[in-house]
């Protein structure tokens, strides 16, 4: 589904991520882990077109999208949830969802909204509250719902549990896992909490100083004591 | 009474144009120093249309709106969109340069009109019409300004809050990057916002010559008042810019009336706009909008 080939990404004239390559198949969860400043979020932004690509290519469902603007990638079935500012805070939950649905054909808006509220029923009681009054976890649920309205094939999550209490973080990742299992959603998850991310994912990419140190099954990385100790604080 | 009507008309004219300026600030973060030039373009569009088509300048309002809108759209696509990611200072300097360029182009146009078509085009005014309303003879200008402004404001409100495009415009205004991640073509939405901003300025500009002498530099004299209205309104609020425009418009009119009645020159009028900008930024940087957006 997603092929990242020799990709180098950065901002302005500064290259932060160097020559990353991997393939992600349909229905997989890829956890991108690594120390702070290793370029995890930059890689995700590069894949979605929000950071400058210096070299390499991104293919989605066999189509080269490296030079496509972000909104085109969204329309092709990618969804990106930024680390912060993933909702319109001055608007109500209902308005946020309607905004996200505004790019859908009018005929499917209502049914898609009901569908998402079935998946995330906890939002039903929050519909008329302004997002700025919600907790961090509730905001992330709203952001997730906004993404799901488009029935994305690939969900790019940039540290969705940042600033959440451990219990809420665990619940959110469990929800992501459920979406993956029930809807067949492919997920690329950038996470600071490596253990939590590796437990819900099938594949792992360990990044250090902008380079890939490991790509393979998550279990293998969890069991790799050297890498775990050195870069993830595991063991 | 006449003074109040004139003040209301002048304030409406400011509101129409300030709204466009605020729209550009909110959506693109550009404090566009060329914004008032779109008003001048609207005035010249009305002049040329009335001469060429032999119609009253009021009939040229749609042409003024269209040309004002196209000028703003071209500014966005050719200057501000390519520079969008270069920071606020770059955008502001670019808008100052654009202001000089547009005024120079208008000067060339004015010279051409004068030389080739023998149209008096530097310091021109429009002759108003008089309509009879409930037995009273009323000048067309205050009626036209208030009708056009009300129609534009209602149309913009309906667009923003009752259409899908409007929902996208609000989304892009709050966070263009987030809107883009949701599949919204932000460039298209920003282009529409700029066209509307220019069209409102063009409409306002087409009505200036009924009360003020218009030349290629007219925009530079109005710009400060527009910035005062938008600053007083809170810079980031459409409603604030409208309220700010009415406060500034009425205050300026009252000041001019007061100065004239004291036998002093009304040239001190811009003093108010300067003072409002400085006082607002010092005392209440979020402007009047902070009152209702708590």
TrEMBL record, chain B:
It is found in: Cell membrane. It is a multi-pass membrane protein. InterPro entries: ABC_transp_permease, BCAA_transport_permease. Keywords: Amino-acid transport, Cell membrane, Membrane, Transmembrane, Transmembrane helix, Transport. GO terms for biological process: amino acid transport. Coiled coil: none annotated. It comes from the Archaea. The chain crosses the membrane at residues 7-26, 38-55, 61-80, 87-110, 141-160, 189-212, 266-284. The keyword Ribonucleoprotein does not apply. GO terms for molecular function: transmembrane transporter activity. Its main location: membrane. One of its GO terms (cellular component) is plasma membrane. Belongs to the binding-protein-dependent transport system permease family. LivHM subfamily. This is Branched-chain amino acid ABC transporter permease.
């Amino acid at each position: 589904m997603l092929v990242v080939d020799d990709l180098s990404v950065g901002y302005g004239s500064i290259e932060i991520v160097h020559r990353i390559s991997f393939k992600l198949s349909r229905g997989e969860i890829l956890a991108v882990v690594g120390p702070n400043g290793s370029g995890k979020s930059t890689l995700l932004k590069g894949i979605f077109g929000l950071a400058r690509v210096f070299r390499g290519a991104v293919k989605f469902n066999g189509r080269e999208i490296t030079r496509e603007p972000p909104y085109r990638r969204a329309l092709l079935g990618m969804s990106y949830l930024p680390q912060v500012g993933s909702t319109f805070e001055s608007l109500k939950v209902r308005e946020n969802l309607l905004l996200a649905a505004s790019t859908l054909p009018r005929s499917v808006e209502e049914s898609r909204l009901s569908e998402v509220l079935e998946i995330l029923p906890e939002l039903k009681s929050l519909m008329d509250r302004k997002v700025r009054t919600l907790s961090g976890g509730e905001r992330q649920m709203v952001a997730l719902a906004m993404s799901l309205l488009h029935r994305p094939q690939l969900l790019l999550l940039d540290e969705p549990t940042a600033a959440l209490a451990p219990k809420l973080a665990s619940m959110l990742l469990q929800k992501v896992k459920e979406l993956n299992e029930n809807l067949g959603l492919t997920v690329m998850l950038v996470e600071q909490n490596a253990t939590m991310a590796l437990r819900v994912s099938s594949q792992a990419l360990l990044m250090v100083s902008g380079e890939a140190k490991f790509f393979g099954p998550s279990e293998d990385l969890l069991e790799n004591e050297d890498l775990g100790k050195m870069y993830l604080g595991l063991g | 009474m006449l003074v109040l009507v004139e003040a209301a008309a002048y304030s409406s004219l400011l509101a129409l144009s300030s709204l466009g300026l605020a729209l550009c600030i909110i959506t693109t973060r550009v404090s566009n120093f060329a914004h008032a030039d779109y008003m001048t373009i609207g005035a010249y569009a009305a002049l040329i249309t009335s001469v060429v088509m032999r119609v009253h300048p009021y009939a040229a309002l749609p042409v003024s709106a269209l040309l004002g809108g196209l000028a703003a759209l071209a500014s966005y696509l050719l200057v501000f969109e390519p520079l969008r990611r270069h920071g606020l200072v770059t955008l502001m300097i670019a808008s100052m340069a654009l202001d000089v360029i547009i005024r120079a182009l208008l000067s060339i146009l004015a010279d051409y009109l004068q030389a080739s078509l023998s149209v008096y085009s530097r310091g021109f005014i429009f002759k108003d019409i008089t309509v009879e309303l409930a037995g009273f003879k009323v000048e067309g200008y205050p009626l036209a300004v208030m009708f056009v402004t009300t129609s534009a404001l209602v149309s913009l409100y309906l667009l923003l809050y009752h259409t899908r495009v409007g929902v996208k415009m609000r989304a892009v205004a709050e966070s263009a990057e987030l809107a883009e991640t949701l599949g919204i073509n932000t460039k298209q939405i920003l282009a529409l916002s700029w066209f509307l901003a220019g069209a409102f300025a063009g409409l306002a500009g087409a009505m200036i010559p009924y009360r003020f002498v218009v030349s290629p530099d007219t925009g530079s004299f109005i710009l400060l008042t527009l910035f005062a209205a938008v600053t007083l309104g809170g810079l980031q609020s459409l409603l604030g810019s409208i309220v700010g425009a009415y406060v500034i418009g009425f205050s300026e009119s009252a000041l001019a009336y007061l100065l004239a009645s004291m036998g002093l020159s009304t040239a001190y009028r811009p003093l108010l706009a300067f003072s409002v900008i400085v006082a607002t930024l010092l005392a209440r940087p979020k402007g009047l909008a902070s009152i209702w957006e708590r």
